[in-house]
Design goal:
The complex is a heterodimer of chains A (102) and B (187).
Chain A lengths: L2 H12 L10 H10 L12 H32 L5 H14 L5
Chain B lengths: L2 H10 L6 H17 L5 H17 L10 H22 L11 H8 L9 H12 L4 H12 L4 H8 L3 H26 L1
Classes of the chains: A mainly alpha (102), B mainly alpha (187).
Chain lengths: 102, 187
Amino acid sequence: MNFRKLKRLFASARRETAPAPPADFAADVLRAIRREPPVAAPETLSVFDQLNLWFPRLALAASAVIVLCVAADYGLTAAGVPSLSDGAAQLSAQWLLTPTGL
Amino acid sequence: MSDDAELLERIRNGATDEFAELVRRHQSRVFAILHRYERDAHQVEDLAQEAFVKAWRALGQFDGRAPFAHWLSSITTRVALDHLRKEKRRQNEIGLPELGDDALDWLRRNDEKNELDAHSAAELLELAMRELSPADRVVITLQELEGRSVKEITAATGASGVAVRVRAMRARSKLKRALEKIAKEKL
């Protein structure tokens, strides 16, 4: 036995025709599936349902942004960079105390 | 929309009886696939019914990106694989099929022009394939008997391309040894 002979064996076997399904096969399958639970039609979601589905992910994303902002503010303050409120106070003092200010 | 797509749409919307038409369209293909793995006609019929029932249950997951026939073929192949695994466990209890004189004669001769008839070839291969693991048998059957490409086999089985190639190579070597062993024992 060599691989070429095996290849010929496959080629011969490939030509075999399968037995035909019995005439009432489709009816038998139908009887079997009638015993199964019905196939649900795909649901169409309303806008609110879709938002509901997305809500947990949006809430998580928003929380992550808040945490990042707080962490960045803390980090910058620790590094000596003036905070936003300090910057705003400086700006308003410059505006108010200059001769041409408000 | 293809014929199958329209039929599936009606079935999903409650026309259960129309599933029989889907069965009639694809039953020959399902039987042909299963016959490669199981020679007993009654068992093939049971397995074919199982494949269609599984397809029915999973209809909600069919997204229509591939043709329905391909999707159904994958389900059928998995049914065949499960069946082979169960049979492998019972292998010692199942009797060996008898080989005809044609098959024995073909094994003995080294004549390149001597071709075996299709039925005898399939019987001989069935005997040799008992030496393979179920997964190896599915791969070599898909490749050599159904003429599928490696890419198609990976889609049908979920195995990687490398695994498919390794299994096919291993299966060929084992089949060659199995046929040599049969020749030695029977002749």
